[in-house]
Here is the input.
Amino acid sequence: MLKIILDTNIIISAAFSATSTSAQALQFAFKKHSVLASLETYNELTTVLYRKKFDALISPEDRKLIIDTFSEDVDWVYPKEKITACRDPKDNMLLELAVSGNADFIITGDQDLLELNPFRNIQIVKPAEFLQIVEKE
Here is the structure.
């Protein structure tokens, strides 16, 4: 079983399009593997999902369902190591989670993270690349 981290941009993308590559990667990760989260990644997901710009796109009930389902289905990790390797300091929390949780993958669309691939033997990939890799197994 792989340990996977889903960047907030992947979860948001999946929420808006159930047939997107992001949604496929998210569904595969939750069905077949272990998805890791920390309080920091949970807080970011909640903050982003409740931005006003999404008000017309997703109901408060659906937002709550996404957050509740996510929090119930992830494996919680409490990072111990501070990492400052990413150009965007806000993305370091994903690297900290990945290292502390011994993750195999970070799935993201964020170029600042993708440029670090691999990071300490953790693959940082887009959803389509993740799906190609795991289909070979």
The longest helix spans residues 60-73. Strands lie at 3-6, 34-37, 75-76, 105-107, 123-125. The longest strand covers residues 3-6. The chain has one domain: 3-135.
